[in-house]
Amino acid sequence: MKLRTDRVIDRLNALGAISDSENCINRAYGTKAHAASGDLLMTWMQKVGLQTHRDTIGNIKGVLPSHAIDAKHFIIGSHYDTVFDAGKYDGPLGILLGLEMVQYIIDKDLQMPFHLNIIAFADEEGSRFNTAYLGSSAIAGFFEKSWLQRKDDEGISLETVIQKNSGICSNIDSDSISKENCIGYFEAHIEQGPVLCNENLSVCLVNGIASQTRVDVHWTGISGHAGTYPMNHRNDALCAAAEFALVVESIGKEYDEKLVSTIGKLNVIPNTPNVIPGKVEHTLDIRSLDDKFLTEIGQILEQRAKEISKQRNVKLVWNIMQTNTSVQCDKNLKRCLKIGIEKAGIHRVLEIPSGAGHDAVMISKIAPVSMLFIRCKDGISHNPLEYVTPEDIEKSIEVCDNFIMELINQNN
Ligand code: GLV
Ligand code: MN
Ligand code: MN
Question: 38: Cβ–Cβ under 8 A, 6 or more apart, which residues?
């Protein structure tokens, strides 16, 4: 176990050292560091004996084939892209635990009743093109062609990035796995919240994943001279956006129990000290476990934005980029995972919902899904302080071994 724990930690460190930025972890989709980390994952997949393939969108797939006639697919996955200034564990840990499960199967010489697919998804965070679950959407057959025209901050389109890195965009559809052929999905991930720390548990089950809507909001006022233009005659786009940001916060606080609302990215144009901001573009990210409620909140926020736009005479564009309904984890897979947790000596099996988005959301369109959460220090994530103890990594390896064993037995 010590050897396997050390291997996972060494690999987390190796991936963490691959970055597009000098002083922090930064592997946005389609960059040099992103490609290099995909290459490294592929070599580890090959080392453990998987048949590997990089698909059009950049997912790295490793397959342990079954010799059973009519065998279907089971997928284990997580993502290898990161947010800017990320930690080492969000995404990679789930892929590396998948590789440990393969190693366990090979060492035990188990007969596979299904083809086991380990997939390192190319983009889950959506940091570059505001497209969460880009990699898993291609696997699920839900990639939307219109996303190809989306541009990053440098004006480079997703289409250009795919063409340059991996090929012909029209091939994306043929990379999917059909619903008829897929029997399930498993993803291990750090919790990214404080529950496991507070409960003093290494791991727990996930019972569902919150719904999420992402909106691009643009405010267009009139830029002008900061020294000469009178205050009462301004159409300041930043002030409109700022007023709206406080609305987003206060509505989030009002419904604290069931809503989180965030403006995480904001561009001020021209972003110059002595010019009144003429344009502001920002994101909006709202999440809830209650789908209907989230739709209503989206409408309320849009209405409030329209009122601000009118009062301030600043033009508003409200563009919904993505919306995903909530996802329930599968009962049977949860049962297998519960057995896996108990066999690892953890007798209090907690079940919690995930506020964070995961590739399981997309894969739920083609398969029953399951997720294991692993404790991370102080619940901190999307932050370089993200940390999982070696003891908890070791426990997760044990749980994952037990889970895959249970699943294989059940399907044999
Ligand atoms: C991914 O980490 C997300 O929940 O945004
Ligand atoms: Mn993340
Ligand atoms: Mn993640």
Answer: 54, 58, 60, 80, 120, 122
Among the bound ligands, name the one nearest to the CA of residue 373.
3
For residue 212, list its beta bridge partners. Answer: 287, 324
pLDDT at 131: 86
Q: Give φ, ψ of 139 to 5 degrees.
A: -70, -40
- Chain-centroid distance, C-alpha 16: 17
Output the ligand 1 site: residues, CB below 6 A. Answer: 125, 356-357
Ligand 1, closest atom to CA 356? 4
pTM for this predicted structure: 0.91
- From the list 145, 179, 196, 121, the residue with the least C-alpha distance to 354 is 196
Query: What pLDDT, on a 0 to 100 scale, did the predictor assign at position 276?
Result: 98
Of ligand 1's atoms, which has the minimum distance to the CA of residue 355?
4
Residues that place a CB less than 5 A from ion ligand 2: 90
In the reported structure, the alpha carbon of residue 382 is separated from the centroid of ligand 3 by a whole-number distance in angstroms of 9
Q: What is the spatial distance between Cα 130 and Cα 99, in angstroms, rounded to a whole number?
A: 29
> What does the alpha-carbon distance between residue 136 and residue 172 come to, in Å, rounded to a whole number?
11
Cα 220–chain centre separation:
31
Distance of alpha carbon 25 from alpha carbon 86, whole angstroms: 5
Relative to the alpha carbon of 121, which ligand is closest? 3
61-107 per-position pLDDT tens digit: 999 999 999 999 999 999 999 999 999 999 999 999 999 999 999 99
pLDDT at position 412 over 90? no
The residue contributing the CA closest to ligand 1 atom 5 is 357
Six-digit token pair at 89?
Answer: 């564990």
Contact (Cβ atoms closer than 8 angstroms) between residue 18 and residue 27: yes
d(CA 365, CA 17): 34
pLDDT above 90 for 166: no
Range of lowest pLDDT (54-63, 82-91, 159-168, 342-351): 159-168
Please report the atom of ligand 1 found closest to the CA of residue 287. Answer: 4
Give me the torsion for CA of 120, 124, 351, 261, rounded to 10°: 170
Q: Tell me how far apart the alpha carbons of residues 196 and 190 are, in angstroms, rounded to a whole number.
A: 10
